[in-house]
């Protein structure tokens, strides 16, 4: 007798496969958190999906090319004119900058403070914007081969964009300052008060938490990187204060800022190579402690961070002399 | 299924992956339908013996790599989606097309919810109900996609 053919053909119940996949996925997530080897593996695997990234960037490239090809002569002439004017303005500024830099160097010498070095950089071009509405990241066309590294600061023409969070051979991924996972130490350009600027997940809003109600902070203040934390070099513009909510009953104010960089419009970026922060490894306990305490500072004590390297060394020497009989 | 059939399945899935990661203006991103989700759902319903959890896992892994999400986040979401559709495909096939669309919305919504949970585990995110929009639009597209894919599949003799 032939076996009766079942009325419905039941496929294999895929529970075991589902369990396997779940275990694998959780394993991957856990491993990525813990082991740096996964990061290397990831950067190799990213090269495998690079063709897809290239493929999906074709339409926008084509549109850009098409717009260029059909743009008429008049608009090109206009653009040329505008660029010339911009060039003139900028070169004028550069000339003033040169004399200001010389003056600054001179003043710093008088104060016996070390001169900040110029920060070397390479340029990079936008490869793709993030396709995920809940994170703010971009992919740029510089990778390990060009010297990009994790934690590297990224600028556009007007301000800080963010930092590199993963690097593959030819591309790297940049976490933008507006991402909810990003925070950058900043100071007010006007008076040097230091805060943290935190991303909110919205491109045009940064949050500045823990601002004491008495702090001197106004709408329109420029926030620049403070250089604390050792990741971003000092003095690059980050954001402008857009709103200060002062409530007399609260100990802290609610302050929001608007990023200065324009990631939606920029195509070209700068990858900075800031010099390494002074190492504290070889120093003895007291000095190491002093640097740790003095350099981070706190907003209640704004002058502490202004002690220069040379001043600190001198102070420690005096302390040493005072202690030794 | 012939070799051509397999190639066709992978071709459509990769096409959906491309649509899923196609760059869009920032304000439009939440309005993108869950292409990969509905295509995977279609193949799970149409050929449950051949397309399943593993397909979801591999595609999810590719999506993680392209989006820079934590490795395994989308892989888990999409394999769960495939699993749910494999569990329900027999019931699914006897539904009318609008009932199917509602069920697609519910299942895509569950998958998106899982993804949001995973996101909150890995870092602070602004949580809002916006994450349901891709599922909603995906479900609204379902009747058309389903009808079109059925015609194409029959024409090509894949099954």
Description:
The complex is a heterodimer of chains A (325) and B (159). Chain A is of the alpha+beta class and 325 residues long. Chain A is 36% helix and 23% strand. Chain A is globular. Chain B is an all-alpha fold. Chain B has one domain. Chain B has six helices and no strands. In chain B, helix 1 (3-21) packs parallel to helix 3 and helix 2 (35-46) crosses helix 4 (73-94). At the A-B interface, helix 1 and helix 2 of A face helix 1, helix 3, helix 4 and helix 5 of B.
Uncertain stretches of 5 or more adjacent residues of chain A: 292-307
Tell me the fraction of residues in β-strands of chain A, as a range: 15-25%
Largest sheet of chain B: none
Helical percentage of chain A: 25-40%
Name the beta content range of chain B.
under 5%
Q: Classify the secondary structure makeup of chain B into a structural class.
A: mainly alpha
What is the strand arrangement across the widest sheet of chain A? 1-2-5-4-3-12
Amino-to-carboxy terminus distance of chain B: 6 Å
Helix and strand sequence of chain A: HHHEEEEEEEEEEEEHH
- Rounded to an integer, what's the Rg of chain A over CA atoms? 26 Å
Question: Which runs of chain B of at least 5 residues are low in confidence (pLDDT < 50)?
Answer: none
Q: Can you tell me the overall shape of chain A? A: globular
Number of helices of chain A: 5
What is the count of β-strands of chain B? Answer: 0
CATH topology of the domain at 121-276 and 296-302 in chain A: Thrombin, subunit H
CATH superfamily of the domain at 121-276 and 296-302 in chain A: Rod shape-determining protein MreC, domain 1
Protein chains sharing the most extensive interface: A-B, 51 and 48 residues
């Amino acid at each position: 007798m032939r076996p009766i053919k079942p009325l419905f053909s039941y496929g294999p119940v895929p529970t075991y496969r589902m369990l396997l996949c779940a275990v694998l996925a959780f394993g991957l997530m856990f491993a990525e958190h813990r082991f740096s080897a996964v990061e290397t593996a990831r950067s190799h695997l990213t090269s495998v999906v690079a063709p897809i990234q290239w493929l999906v960037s074709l339409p926008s490239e084509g549109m850009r090319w098409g717009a260029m090809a059909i743009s008429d002569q008049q608009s090109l002439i206009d653009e040329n004119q505008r660029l010339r004017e911009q060039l003139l303005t900028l070169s004028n500024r550069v000339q003033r900058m040169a004399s200001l830099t010389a003056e600054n160097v001179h003043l710093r010498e008088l104060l016996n403070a070390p001169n900040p070095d110029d920060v070397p950089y390479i340029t990079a071009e936008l490869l793709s914007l993030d396709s995920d509405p809940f994170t703010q990241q971009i992919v740029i066309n510089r990778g390990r081969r060009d010297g990009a590294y994790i934690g590297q600061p990224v600028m556009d023409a007007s301000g800080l964009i963010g930092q590199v969070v993963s690097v593959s051979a030819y591309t790297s991924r940049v976490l933008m300052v507006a991402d909810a996972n990003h925070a950058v130490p900043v100071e007010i350009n006007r008076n040097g008060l230091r805060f943290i600027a935190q991303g909110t997940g919205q491109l045009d809003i940064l949050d500045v938490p823990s601002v004491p109600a008495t702090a001197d902070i106004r709408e329109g203040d420029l926030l620049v990187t403070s250089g604390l934390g050792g990741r971003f070099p000092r003095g690059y513009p980050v954001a402008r204060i857009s709103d200060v909510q002062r409530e007399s009953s609260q100990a802290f104010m609610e302050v929001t800022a608007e990023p200065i960089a324009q990631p939606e419009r920029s195509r070209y970026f700068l990858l900075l190579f800031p010099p390494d922060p002074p190492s504290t490894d070889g120093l003895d306990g007291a000095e190491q402690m002093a640097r740790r305490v003095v350099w981070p500072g706190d907003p209640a004590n704004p002058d502490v961070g202004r002690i220069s390297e040379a001043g600190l060394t001198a102070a420690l020497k005096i302390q040493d002399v005072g202690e030794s009989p | 299924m012939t070799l051509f059939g397999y190639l066709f399945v992978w071709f459509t899935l990769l096409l959906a992956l491309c649509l899923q990661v196609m760059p869009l203006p920032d304000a439009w991103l939440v309005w993108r339908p869950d292409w990969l989700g509905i295509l995977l759902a279609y193949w799970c319903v149409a050929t449950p013996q051949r397309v399943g959890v593993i397909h979801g896992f591999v595609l999810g892994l590719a999506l993680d790599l392209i989006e820079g999400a934590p490795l395994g986040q989308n892989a888990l979401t999409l394999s769960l989606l495939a699993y749910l559709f494999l569990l329900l495909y027999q019931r699914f096939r006897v539904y009318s097309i609008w009932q199917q669309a509602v069920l697609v919305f519910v299942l895509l919504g569950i998958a998106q919810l899982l993804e949001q949970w995973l996101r909150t585990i890995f870092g602070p995110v602004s949580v809002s109900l916006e994450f349901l929009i891709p599922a909603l639009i995906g479900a609204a597209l379902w009747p058309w996609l389903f009808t079109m894919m059925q015609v194409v599949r029959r024409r090509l003799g894949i099954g």
